[in-house]
Design a protein that fits this description.
By secondary structure, this protein is α/β, with parallel strands linked by helices. The protein has 8 helices and 12 strands. Helix 6 packs across helix 8. Bound molecules: calcium ion (CA).
Length: 234
């Protein structure tokens, strides 16, 4: 069955070009031109991927991401017009999986879509294949990760985690005691095609520590292994 992609872009010529090329590559494509239509179509279609422009009439792409992330884990590829750090950080913080800065070539776009879908497939397969995730709850002292509810609790209280913080935590707890390099973490949690650098990993580790470490300045759970990466010690 072909994968379904929802394109949300208000610029008609770009929207049509993206749709045309994706369809030619064998995907099933639907398109929307504003935030409200995007939410409606995403809920109805449950697409395999959402390609989402930031600057939209009505709700912008950030708002659409914020709303959708409360409901679903649909992978989101965000399109931004400006190569501004603030857009990138904001988009990723809100739960976009990757982003591209306009203008980009169609070839680059198709490669990114393919890679993102492949990564999502691999991650799902890995989750199915591994033994640990079959446990609905992973317990590390006062920290509990519920893989069915996609949430983590500390002392019984649900933590407010951004989607990528949760993904990172899940990846760490599935490899306890192993030294994980930043590059490996970046590849497995964000994908090798991800536009950001390994600093993204450090930033998310810092955010996670502030939520799960008793003393974030002296971490005992997510340990920094100098010159190597990170290790989860439970
Ligand atoms: Ca736009």
């Amino acid at each position: 069955m072909p994968e379904t992609i929802l394109i949300v872009e208000d610029e008609l010529s770009l929207r049509e070009a993206l749709a045309y090329n994706l369809e030619r590559d064998g995907y099933k494509v639907e398109a929307a031109g504003d935030g409200k239509a995007a939410l409606e179509a995403a809920r109805r279609l449950q697409p395999d991927l959402l390609v989402l422009d930031v600057m939209l009439p009505g709700f912008d792409g950030f708002e659409v991401t914020r709303i959708l992330r409360k409901e679903t884990n649909i992978p989101i590829l965000m399109l931004t017009a400006r190569d501004e750090e603030i857009d990138r950080v904001l988009g990723l913080e809100m739960g976009a999986d990757d982003y591209m800065t306009k203008p980009f070539s169609m070839r680059e776009f198709l490669a990114r879509v393919k890679a993102l879908l492949r990564r999502v497939r691999l991650m799902r397969e890995e989750m199915d294949a591994e033994d640990l995730p079959k446990q609905a709850e992973l317990v590390f002292d006062n920290l509990t990760i519920s893989t069915t509810r996609h949430e983590a609790r500390l002392d019984g209280k649900t933590l407010m985690l951004k989607p990528k913080e949760y993904d990172l935590l899940l990846f760490l707890v599935r490899h306890p005691g192993q030294v994980l390099t930043r590059e490996l973490i970046l590849e497995r949690v964000w994908g090798w095609d991800f536009g950001g650098g390994t600093r993204t990993v450090d930033v998310h580790v810092r955010w996670l520590r502030s939520k799960i470490e008793p003393d974030p300045s002296n971490p005992t759970r997510i340990i920094t292994v100098r010159g190597m990466g990170y290790r989860f010690d439970g």
